[in-house]
From TrEMBL:
Belongs to the GntP permease family. It comes from the Bacteria. Coiled coil: none annotated. Keywords: Cell membrane, Membrane, Transmembrane, Transmembrane helix, Transport. It is found in: Cell membrane. PANTHER family: GNT FAMILY GLUCONATE TRANSPORTER, HIGH-AFFINITY GLUCONATE TRANSPORTER. Pfam families: GntP_permease (PF02447). GO terms for molecular function: gluconate transmembrane transporter activity. This is Gluconate permease. The chain crosses the membrane at residues 6-24, 31-49, 61-81, 102-120, 149-166, 186-210, 231-253, 265-288, 300-322, 334-357, 388-411, 423-447. InterPro entries: Glcn_transporter. It is a multi-pass membrane protein.
């Protein structure tokens, strides 16, 4: 490594540290804190101010171009499932079928299904109050705090895993685009890695972390409008439609040419923005029936969806700006040289960079966006399959959620745990997801 490399590393560390201080101590929004960090990195790395500003604009613009639509449409679909109580109906049906002994497993797999098209925070607000109510209704002697947590923690594990590893969530979707990965294969591999990871970090780990944690009364249930709860089949169709469309479009490439020509239209329907738009349009009659033209319902859906959308989209855009400044300053090229020395596996290196950015910024999506951007050169130089790189980055983006992560406080509120209990349950669970996910990625990438 050259003196310029050390200067670049110092610039990155100082810039990210400044972002942390501004976000945590200064109480600034992550959007402002990350932008300040991006400019600091550029200046300390020796980039002219004009070049730094252009990198910030390029990075933010590239990220917001398509991802803003994905986030907005995903939040819209989540709002529909929340307001119609469609997600609640699915969760209650699964918990009724499973019985007391199988309830943690029902909670886990319901979260995986419901979480497929939804942003993590949306899935959390939708699902956790329902699971908490089911936990409170457990038979006498089986509804203590530890038993309740053994029901709620698997739901969090399921939501976390699909958020970090499975498109069309914004983080993995952006990593797929940045690294040139195959979307269908990433979705398939993400589920293949994610399900066993969620099992280990959810029902199995909860047996050890739940005992001894005390719960406070949970928050109120999420908002609901006065409509009949849709059937489980209708709600499930709305949830799975975007995933099915994306998978179907990728599957066309596997068909014989004379057959594939008749399904060419699936290639554009499988675009994540188009798939989510189709799902939103289909969800309206599926979840609200004839009341889809009711002005009150339409206003409630988009008010509920757009309220959190602005902050999420701005934070993601600022993460893209930070990524582009790091790339422009030469961090991507430096990582390629480090990996070429053979001292560390490219997958472990990508995971480690993602972990560092996650710990610094508190955002899994920002960690994924930033790491994927600086790893583009490494994917091309190392020959590693980009799908496994996407998943290694996604796993690292979950490592040890703590006080600079908005999700930490949201989980704390909905679980009803104190600070120590939140660290013992949620933070440890996220760390286990990150480590187990990496180990399974390393294992699977050596086989397939």
């Amino acid at each position: 490594m050259t003196p310029a490399d050390y200067r670049l590393i110092l610039a990155a560390v100082v810039g990210i540290a400044l972002s942390i201080i501004l976000i945590i101590r200064g109480r600034l929004h992550p959007f402002v804190g990350l932008l300040c960090g991006a400019f600091t990195v550029g200046l300390l790395a020796g980039l002219p101010m004009e070049e730094t500003a252009k990198a910030v604009e390029k990075g933010a613009g590239a990220i917001l171009g398509g991802t803003g639509l994905v986030v907005a449409l995903g939040l819209g679909l989540g709002a529909m499932l929340q307001l119609s109580d469609g997600a609640g109906g699915m969760a209650r049906a699964a918990l009724r079928l499973s019985g007391v002994k199988g309830a943690p497993w029902a909670s886990l797999f319901t979260a995986i299904v419901i979480g497929l098209p939804l942003f993590f925070e949306t899935g959390l607000v939708l699902l956790l109050p329902i699971v908490a109510s089911a936990a409170a209704a457990l038979p006498t002697g089986q509804n203590g705090d530890a038993a309740k947590l053994r029901l709620m923690l698997p739901a969090l594990a399921g939501l976390s895993v699909v958020h970090a590893l499975v498109p069309p969530h914004p983080g993995p979707l952006l990593a797929v685009n940045a690294l040139g990965a195959n979307l269908g294969l990433t979705l398939l591999y993400g589920l293949m890695i994610g399900i066993p990871t969620a099992i280990i970090a959810g029902p199995l780990l909860a047996r050890f972390t739940a005992p001894g944690v005390t719960l406070n009364p949970p928050l109120l249930d999420p908002v609901k409008v006065d409509v009949a709860t849709p059937s489980v089949g209708r709600a499930l169709a709305a949830v799975l439609l975007p995933v099915v469309l994306i998978a179907a479009g990728q599957a066309v490439a596997l068909l014989p040419p004379n057959v594939a020509v008749h399904f060419h239209w699936l290639s554009w329907v499988s675009d994540p923005v188009v798939a989510l738009l189709v799902a939103v349009l289909a969800a309206l009659p599926l979840l609200f029936g004839r009341r889809i033209t009711d002005r009150t319902i339409q206003n409630a859906i988009w008010t509920e969806a757009m309220t959190p959308a602005g902050g999420i989209i701005l934070a993601i855009g600022a993460g893209g700006a930070l990524k582009q400044v790091l790339v422009t300053a030469g961090l991507s090229d430096m990582l390629v040289r480090v990996a070429d020395g053979g001292a560390i596996s490219p997958l472990i290196l990508a995971w480690g960079v993602s972990v560092c950015i996650r710990l610094a910024t508190g955002s899994a999506t920002v960690a994924t966006i930033t790491t994927a951007g600086v790893m583009q050169g490494l994917v091309a130089a190392s020959g590693v399959e980009p799908e496994w790189m996407v998943l290694a980055i996604g796993a690292g983006s979950l490592f040890f959620s703590h006080v600079n992560d908005p999700g930490f406080w949201l989980v704390k509120s909905y679980l009803g745990t104190d600070m120590a209990g939140t660290f013992k349950t949620w933070s440890i669970m996220e760390t286990v997801v990150a480590i187990v996910g990496l180990l399974l990625v390393l294992l699977a990438s050596s086989i397939f």
